[in-house]
Amino acid sequence: MRPSLRLLNLEVPGSRALYVCSICRQEARPRPIVARQFLRHASSNADSLSERVRRKLWGTDNPPGLKDPYGESLLEKRFGKPKPQEPEEPQVEETNELAEPSDGLEPGVSYEPATTWHGLERVGHLGRWKDAPPSEADTYGSFAPKHKLYKKGPLSLAAHQAAVEISLMQALNRPLTHVCKVVEHDKPIFKLIWKTKVLPTSPNWGESLKFHNENAKKVLFYVFEQIGGTQPEAAEQEQAVEDIEVEEFENFEIVEDPSPPAPNPRFFGYTEPRFKSATSLPLTDPAIKFAFLKRFSQLSGHYFPDNIVSQITNVKHAMQYIQGQLHPKPTKLAEQLENDKQLQTLSNVKVFSKRQTTLHRDDEKGRRKLIESELRARGLLE
Amino acid sequence: MKRLQLQRWSSSVLSAQARTGGRLQHRLYNGIRHQSTASPAAPTANDQLIEEEPLASPIHPPNSRQSKYQLPSPPVEAARESAKLAALHARLYLPSRLPLETLARSLVDASADPNPKFNNDSLATLGHDLLTHYTTEYLLCTYPRLPLTVIFAAMYAYVGPKTLEAMAREWGVEFAAAPGGEVDPGYLQFKRMLPGTEPKPVTGTARPHEDQKHWRKSITSSVVYDNEFGDPVKGPKDPSEQSRQDTPNLKGVSAEQASATFVRAVMGAIYLHAGRPAAKRFFEQHFLSRHLNISDLFNFSQPARDLSRLCARENFEQPVARIISETGRKSRHPVFVVGIYSGQDKLGEGAGASLLEARSRAAVAALKGWYLYSPLNVRVPSSMEEEGAAPWKPVHVDLGEVIV
C-alpha cells in the first residue's frame, strides 16, 4: 500500500467528507522527528557526528575553534532541547549587569515601558497655540516689496540708491549687507542719496562717491555709521539726526508733500535718478556684487538666481536681466516654426497654428462629411 | 515647321471659356477612328454644353467654411495653400510653367465635379491622345514588323489604365474619401462606385452586327472599330445623346479609371503649359523608361507553319529543321537541339525534350527574330516637329504579319 493511502487510513476510515490530503496532513502532524532531520547537532553533544569528525580531522580530543562553527540555528532554538547549564552562563550574566547602566537608567530605577501617552512628559507649546494672541514672531515681513519694479526709471533709481548705499558702507568700512536692515530711508536721507553722484572711475566703490556738498557727506556718513549697529539705538539716532536735517534742508526748496501720514509712494515720488552713471559700475568684487544684488533685489523685488548672479558683471547687466533682455524667455517650438521665414517660403511645408487632429485629417480627406451624414442617418448627431 | 502657339491653348484651358473642341483636337480627331469614350463631340455641341452650365451658381466668399462644403471640388485658391500639391509638383519634377492650379485641376475627376471648367476631362482627353500617339509611333518605328495583337498588348502595357494606375500610385497620389470643396487639392478626387457594382460589357459600339456574338472578329477590324488597345469602345454619339451621357457618369468611377484619367490629364497639362518638348521629355522619362519585354507578348499556335508561310512570302528557301546536337535519346530526359535552316542560313535554334518540341521552339525563335527586328537609330515622325530637325528619312515599313 502506498504511504499516502496508509495515511488516509489512519483517519476515520471510509468517510470521504473528512478527507484531508496527505500533504496537509503531513503539515498538521506534530513533527519533532521530521524537524530533527534538519537539526545541526550542536557540538555540545560530544558524541555528535560533527564533533567526531572534527576530532578526527584535528587528531586530538580537544580540537581548536568554535564548538559550533555555524552558530545556533533557528530550528534548534525552537525544537532543540533546553541545553544543560553550561559553565559559561554566569559570565554572560555578569556582562549583562555591566551593560545595564549604559542604557541611561540609574541603577536601581526600574524601567517600565509606557502603553499610552498619558502621564508622559510633553515637549513644545503647552497651551492651545491658536488661541494665543499673535506675537511679534508670528507676523511675517517679506524681504522683497509687494510690488516689483519693471519700468526703467524706478529700476535705475533703485540701482542708484543701492550703489550709493554700498559705496557709503564701503567708505565707512562697515559690513556691506547691513544696508538691507533699513528697508526705506526717510525722505531727507533719500534726497541726499538722490543728489549724490557715483563716478565709475575707480574699481573701489568707496572712492567713487561725489557728494552734493560737504554737509551732505557729513550727514550721510553719520547716518550710515549708525546702520548695522544695535537697531533701536540707530533708529533713535537717525530720528534725531533727521530732525536736525529737516530744519537744515528746508531751504533746499524741494517740493514736499504736505501729507506725511499717508503711505509714502515708492522713492517718494521720484521716477528718475538724477545721475545715471551708477549703471556702469563694475561688479567684479564678489562681496560688493553680493551686497549690491541683495540690496537691489530688496528694492526692486526681483530675485536673482545663482546662474544669473555669476553672469552679471556690472550694474547694467542686473537691470537688463530684470527687463528681460539678458535672458529672454524661450519661445515655444510652435511659435518658432510659425515665425520661421524659411519654412514660410517652402511651398511643400505647411505650418498650422493649431494642433491637427484626426478631425482635421478627416476633413481634408473628405471623410468627415461622410461620417457626419452617417451619424445623422442613425440619429446619433443632431 | 512653324512653332505652334501653345500659350493660347493653355489660356483657354485656364480661363472660363474652355474650348474643348479647339484646333488641336480638330487636328487629332480628323482621322476615321473615334478614339475614346472621353473624347468630346463636335465643338458646337461643346459650346452649347458650356452655355447650358448654370453660370449663376451662388458664389460665396472663398474662405468661409460653409461655402467650401457646398463646392463640388476645392476652390482654385486652395491650390496655393496645399503642401501636398506642391510636394507632388516637386516630386514629379514638373516644369515650373505648369501652375499648381492646373495640377489641382488634373486631380479632379469628372465624376467629382461635372463642370468641365473645373474637372480634368479635357486635359485627360488631350493627354490620352498624346500618350497613345507617342507610344504608337514609338512602337511602330522601333519594331516595324510586330503583329497587331502584340502592338495592342504593348500599347496596353505602356499606356493602359492599369499601368497608369500603378504610376499614379508610385507618384504617391492618394485618394480622397469623397470629393468636396473642403478636401485638400492634393488628393485625387472622384466619386467612387458603389460596392458590388459589376462592370458592364461595352455596348453600342460602331462595329456593325455587334449583336452577333459568335461572329468572328478579325484583328484588323479592331484597328477601325476598337480603341488603341483592341478593346471595344462606344461609338460616336449625337450631341443630344452626349449631353444625356453625362448624367450616368455621375454614378462613380473606379479608382483605376480615375487614376488613369489623372495621369493622362497631367500629360495634357504639361503639353499645354510647358510645350511639346517638355511633354515628350515627360513621356520618355515616365512611360518609355518602363521596361517591357516585348518578346514575352508573343503567342504562336503553329509556329512551324507560320514560319514556312513567311519564308514563302519572302521568297526564302523553305525552312528545314535539322538536329544540331542531341543527348540521351534513349534516356528518360533526352535533349535535342534543333536548328531551322533556310538554305544555308540558320533562322533559329531551339532545345527541347522531344524533336517536335525542339523544332517548334526553333521556329518560335526564328519568328521572334523576324518580328522583333528593330532598325538602328530609330526616329519617330514627331521628332520632325522640333525646329532644326534633320531631314526626314523614311522609316522601314513592313508588309505586316503572316496571315495563314
Task: Describe this protein's structure.
- Among the domains of chain A are: 3-30, no CATH class; 152-256 and 263-322, no CATH class; 333-377, no CATH class.
- A two-stranded antiparallel sheet of chain A has the order 1-2.
- Residues 85-102, 230-238 and 243-260 of chain A have low confidence and may be disordered.
- In chain A, helix 9 runs antiparallel to helix 10.
- The longest helix of chain A is centred in the middle third of the chain and has 21 residues, at 152-172.
- Chain A contains 17 helices and 2 strands.
- Chain A has 382 residues and is mainly alpha-helical.
- Chain A has helices spanning 3-10, 22-28, 32-36, 49-58, 74-79, 89-99, 152-172, 187-195, 214-226, 231-249, 286-300, 306-311, 315-322, 333-339, 341-345, 358-365, 367-377, and strands spanning 197-198, 209-210.
- In chain A, 44% of the residues lie in helices and 1% in strands.
- Chain B folds into 2 domains: 6-296, Ribonuclease III domain (Ribonuclease iii, N-terminal Endonuclease Domain, Chain A); 300-371, Double Stranded RNA Binding Domain (2-Layer Sandwich), CATH 3.30.160.
- Chain B contains 16 helices and 3 strands.
- The longest helix of chain B has 22 residues, at 121-142.
- Mean pLDDT of chain B is 84; it is low at 1-60.
- Classes of the chains: A mainly alpha (382), B mainly alpha (404).
- Chain A: Keywords: Mitochondrion, Ribonucleoprotein, Ribosomal protein.
Q: What keyword list fits this structure?
A:
heterodimer; A: 382 residues; mainly alpha; two-stranded antiparallel sheet; 44% helix; 1% strand; B: 404 residues; Ribonuclease iii, N-terminal Endonuclease Domain, Chain A; Double Stranded RNA Binding Domain; 2 domains; 3-stranded antiparallel sheet; 16 helices; elongated; disordered N terminus; ribonucleoprotein (chain A); Ribosomal_m50 (chain A); ribosomal protein (chain A); Large ribosomal subunit protein mL50 (chain A); mitochondrion (chain A)
Coarse shape of chain B: elongated
Structural class of chain A: mainly alpha
Instruction: Please list the strands of the largest sheet of chain B in the order they lie side by side.
Output: 1-2-3
Total strand segments of chain B = 3
Q: Tally the helices of chain B: what do you get?
A: 16
CATH topology of the largest domain in chain B: Ribonuclease iii, N-terminal Endonuclease Domain, Chain A
Mind telling me the C-alpha Rg of chain B? Answer: 25 Å
Order of helices and strands of chain A: HHHHHHHHEEHHHHHHHHH
Fraction in helix of chain A: 40-55%
